[in-house]
C-alpha cells in the first residue's frame, strides 16, 4: 500500500523542491518505487527533472501532466479521471515524475468554492475527492511505495486539499525569522483544515460522489532544516540560533497543537525513528550545497549522487567534492531511513 507524503510550508524558499527530489531519489536508491507529484504551478520540480527538454516535453505531450489529469472533474468532461503516464527519472530506476502545469492554478477558485459549498450544490460534489482519486490511480499504476507531493507556498484550496488527503507530511524550513513565523501560522491553520477534512469525509454528499473524499489519516512526520552555513561540523553561530528557535517552537507549540487534533504519531514512534522530542522532531539538518547547487541542477542529479566526472574537477578540489558527497549521502540516507521507519508504523 503506497504512502502519500506532502511536503508543505507556506513560506517560500525553504527547498521543498530540492528536498522532494533528493528524498525521492534516496528512497528509490534504497529499493522503493517512488512517484513525485509536481503540484506547484511554478513547475520547478518538473524543470529539475526534465532540464533542457522541458519545452519540448510539454509541446509533445500536452496531456501528460497534473492539470490534464484532473480536467475531467474540473472541466466537466464526459469521462472519468484516468491515469496519466509518468516520466521515469534518468539514471535512477524506480523514480518517476508526474509533471506539473502552470494552469493548475486555474482550479484554485473552483475547488475553494466546492470545498465550502459541495454539500449544498450537487454539481460541485466530485471536486474535493478528485485530487486523491487521481493521485491514488497514478500510484497504483506505477506500483509505487511512496508518493511525494511537492506543493506550492500558499494557503490556497489546492494545498489544503492535497495536504488533508495525504497520509503524512513534512515541513521543510530554513533558519530565519520567517520560518519561525510560519511555524506559528501552521499551528493555527492545520487544526482548522483537519476539522474540515474530517467533516468532508463524513459528508454523505461527498462520500457518494464519483470521487469520494478519503478518510482523514494525516500525520506529522517532522521538519527538515536546510540552507545554513556550516562551520566545524555544525552551523555557524548566527544560523544555529535560528535552528534552535525553530526546533523549540516546533516542540513547544506546533507539535502539541497537532497532537491535540490527532495529527501526530505516538511518542515512541518518533523515538524509534531517531527523532524524539529531545531532537525536536527534526528529521534532518542539511547545510547549504553552495557551489554544488549548479552542478547538481545541470546534471539533474542530487549532490550525493554526482559522479566524479560530473564534478569536473581534479586533485584536491575533487577530493573535497568527494568528501562533501559522502557527507550529504549520509545525511539523506539517515533522513530517508527515518521517513521509512515513521511511515511503516502508520
Instruction: Kindly identify the CATH topology.
Output: Rossmann fold
Which value, in Å, is the CA radius of gyration? 20 Å
CATH homologous superfamily identity: P-loop containing nucleotide triphosphate hydrolases
Overall pLDDT: 92
Low-pLDDT sequence parts? none
Q: Element order, helices and strands? A: EHEHHHEEHHEHEHHEEEHHEHHH
User: What's the shape?
Assistant: globular
Strand content: 5-15%
Number of helices: 14
Main sheet: which strands, in order across?
3-4-2-5-1-6-7-10
Distance between the termini: 11 Å
What top-tier CATH class fits best?
Alpha Beta
Count of individual domains: 1
Distinctive features:
49% helix, 346 residues, eight-stranded mixed beta sheet, Rossmann fold
Account of the protein in words:
It is a single chain. This protein has 346 residues and is α/β, with parallel strands linked by helices. The chain has one domain (3-290): P-loop containing nucleotide triphosphate hydrolases (Rossmann fold, 3-Layer(aba) Sandwich). The chain contains 14 helices and 10 strands. It has helices at 16-29, 44-50, 54-60, 66-74, 108-117, 130-141, 157-164, 177-202, 204-207, 237-260, 267-272, 292-299, 308-311, 315-344, and strands at 3-7, 34-39, 87-88, 95-98, 146-151, 168-173, 219-226, 230-231, 234-235, 282-286. Strands 3-4-2-5-1-6-7-10 form an 8-stranded mixed beta sheet, sandwiched between helices. It has a two-stranded antiparallel ribbon with strand order 8-9. A hairpin with a 2-residue loop joins strand 8 and strand 9 (234-235). The longest helix has 30 residues, at 315-344. The radius of gyration is 20 Å and the shape is globular. It starts with a strand and ends with a helix.
Amino acid at each position: 500500500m503506497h504512502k502519500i507524503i506532502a511536503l508543505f510550508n507556506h513560506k517560500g524558499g525553504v527547498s521543498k523542491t530540492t528536498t522532494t527530489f533528493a528524498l525521492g531519489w534516496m528512497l528509490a536508491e534504497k529499493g522503493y518505487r517512488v512517484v513525485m507529484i509536481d503540484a506547484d504551478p511554478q513547475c520547478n520540480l518538473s524543470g529539475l527533472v526534465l532540464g533542457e527538454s522541458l519545452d519540448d516535453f510539454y509541446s509533445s505531450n500536452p496531456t501528460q501532466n497534473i492539470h490534464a489529469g484532473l480536467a475531467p472533474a474540473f472541466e466537466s468532461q464526459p469521462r472519468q479521471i484516468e491515469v496519466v503516464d509518468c516520466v521515469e527519472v534518468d539514471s535512477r530506476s524506480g523514480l518517476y515524475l508526474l509533471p506539473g502545469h502552470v494552469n493548475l492554478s486555474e482550479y484554485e477558485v473552483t475547488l475553494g468554492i466546492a470545498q465550502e459549498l459541495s454539500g449544498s450544490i450537487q454539481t460541485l460534489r466530485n471536486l474535493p475527492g478528485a485530487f486523491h482519486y487521481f493521485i491514488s490511480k497514478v500510484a497504483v499504476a506505477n506500483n509505487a511505495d511512496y508518493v511525494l507531493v511537492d506543493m506550492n507556498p500558499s494557503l490556497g484550496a489546492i494545498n489544503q486539499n492535497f495536504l488533508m488527503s495525504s497520509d503524512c507530511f513534512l515541513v521543510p524550513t530554513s533558519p530565519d525569522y520567517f520560518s519561525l513565523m510560519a511555524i506559528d501560522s501552521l499551528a493555527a491553520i492545520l487544526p482548522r483544515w483537519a476539522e474540515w477534512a474530517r467533516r468532508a469525509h463524513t459528508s454523505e454528499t461527498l462520500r457518494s460522489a464519483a470521487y469520494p473524499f478519503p478518510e482523514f489519516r494525516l500525520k506529522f512526520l517532522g521538519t527538515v532544516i536546510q540552507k545554513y552555513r556550516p562551520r566545524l561540523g555544525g552551523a555557524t553561530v548566527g544560523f544555529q540560533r535560528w535552528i534552535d528557535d525553530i526546533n523549540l517552537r516546533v516542540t513547544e507549540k506546533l507539535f502539541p497543537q497537532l497532537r491535540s487534533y490527532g495529527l501526530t504519531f505516538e511518542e515512541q514512534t518518533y523515538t524509534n525513528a531517531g527523532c524524539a522530542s529531545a531532537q525536536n522532531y527534526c528529521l534532518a539538518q542539511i547545510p547549504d550545497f553552495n557551489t554544488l547547487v549548479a552542478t547538481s541542477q545541470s546534471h539533474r542529479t542530487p549532490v550525493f549522487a554526482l559522479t566524479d566526472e560530473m564534478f569536473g574537477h581534479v586533485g584536491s578540489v575533487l577530493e573535497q567534492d568527494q568528501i562533501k558527497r559522502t557527507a550529504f549521502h549520509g545525511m539523506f540516507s539517515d533522513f530517508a531511513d527515518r521517513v521509512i521507519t515513521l511511515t511503516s508504523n502508520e
